[in-house]
Design brief:
Blueprint: H1 2-5, E1 17-18, E2 21-22, H2 34-45, E3 70-76, H3 77-80, E4 101-103, E5 115-122, E6 131-146, E7 151-166, H4 173-179, E8 188-189, H5 194-206, H6 215-234
Parallel strand pairs: 3-5
Antiparallel strand pairs: 1-2, 3-8, 4-7, 5-6, 6-7
């Protein structure tokens, strides 16, 4: 939920009234009126938290619900030079990590509620070729526009995998990677991508992180595991 992103999870943990938050229906309306109604109530009630008026931003024209709500985003460790969510903040855990996804594609404005799976590519020490890892899934709950970077930013709940899963040698992955343009297209829809629906989705559901540790420790565990694996193979 957006409450996790803004570190409000402790204030709101179940239905009803808790702390300074109250959940209630203030008006029933048609789906195509939602943005206009949201804008109206934000301007009228002036709430402390709901302050972003996406509907009146020129980068956010009237939005439509996407029919296909499954996407992937590739993160090249070699190109980017860092892991998703790299930070010196020791308070970041596998529960509250929120690194977001940056894209210049305007399809982002319609992605509220969408699932975006992050695939990380990189070469572990002593490994000659790139390996591809199932890293996490983002459920989009907020869409912003960064004027400085001229980029849309998708944020929400990051569902990490228990430990990153190497997809490289799974039957059908090479064909899937080629159909995705070797992951060179950035954020892309998974419409008509059988490997995604038959292999990746079940892995995400089955191996979702269920315990909480420091995010930096989670990344270090992954690095240590892969370095040990390829040190043994080269030895």
């Amino acid at each position: 939920m957006a409450f996790a992103k803004y570190k409000l999870r402790n204030q709101v943990s179940k239905h009803g009234v808790y702390g300074n938050f109250k959940f209630e229906i203030i008006e029933l309306c048609a789906e195509d009126e939602l943005l206009e109604k949201e804008k109206y109530y934000i301007e009228t009630l002036k709430p402390q938290y709901n302050v972003q008026l996406n509907g009146v931003n020129p980068h956010f024209p009237t939005r439509n619900t996407l029919k296909y709500q499954n996407f992937i985003q590739y993160h090249s460790l070699e190109k980017m030079g860092y892991f998703p969510g790299d930070s010196d903040d020791d308070s970041i855990t596998t529960e509250n990590i929120n690194y977001g996804i940056y894209t210049k594609k305007r399809l982002a404005i319609n992605m509220l509620g969408s699932s975006v799976v992050i695939i990380l590519g990189g070469k572990p020490t002593n490994c000659k070729h790139n390996r591809y890892y199932l890293w996490s899934e983002l459920i989009v709950e907020d869409i912003k526009y960064n004027d400085e970077l001229d980029t849309y930013v998708l944020e929400g709940i990051e569902n990490l995998i228990n430990e990153p899963i190497d997809l490289t040698d799974i039957n059908g992955f090479d064909h899937f990677r080629m159909k995705c343009g070797n992951f060179a297209y950035g954020l892309q829809s998974m419409k008509n991508k059988d490997f995604y629906h038959e292999k990746i989705v079940p892995l995400v559901k089955s191996y979702r992180m269920k315990h909480v540790i420091k995010y930096s420790r989670w990344v270090d565990n992954f690095i240590e595991r892969e370095e040990k694996k390829y040190a043994q193979k080269s030895g």
